[in-house]
Amino acid sequence: MPYALERKYPAAAHDWIWQYVFPAARRSIDPRSGIKRRHHVAPLVLQRAVQVAVRQAEITKPASCHTLRHSFVTHLLEQGADIRTVQELLGHKDLNTTMIYTHVLQRGARGARSPLDGL
Asked: Is 28 exposed, middle or buried (0-12, 13-18, 19+ CB in 10 A)?
C-alpha cells in the first residue's frame, strides 16, 4: 500500500482493491518494512505468457498484452460504452487519445450485426 495509507487504514491491506490481480509466484522482502510478502508479477512474465498462448493458439498475426487492451476497448465501444468511461478505464488524461479507438465504429455498410453475433 502507498506509504501513509498503511498507517491511516491498517486493515485496508486486506481489502480486495489492494490485492494484485497477477501476484508473483514467490514472496520477497519488502525493502521499506523488511517484511516478507508477495509482490506483483513482473510485466515480462505476463508478456511471455501471452506470447506462449499466441503460439499455442497458432495465431499468425502479431499479438501482445497491448493487443488485448485494444480488443477490450474495441468491444466496449461496439457494445455502446460511453467514451468518457473508456477514457477512465484506460487511464488517458486527454480524451483525444481515447478518441483514436472510435475508428472501429465507422464501419459503413458492413457495420450491421446479426443477432447471433452477440452469442
From this structure: exposed
The pLDDT tens digits of the residues spanning 37-95 come to 888 888 899 999 999 999 999 999 999 999 999 889 988 888 888 889 999 999 999 99
Alpha-helix residue ranges (DSSP H) falling in 1-119: 3-8, 43-56, 65-78, 83-90, 95-99
Give me 55's grid cell: 503460439
Helices (H) and strands (E) in the chain, counts: 5, 2
Classify residue 103 by burial, with Cβ atoms within 10 Å: 0-12, 13-18, 19+: exposed
DSSP 61: S
Fill in the amino acid letter for 94: D
pTM of the model: 0.61
53 Rama class: left (phi>0) / alpha (psi -120 to 50) / beta:
alpha
Angstrom distance (rounded) from CA 71 to CA 90: 12
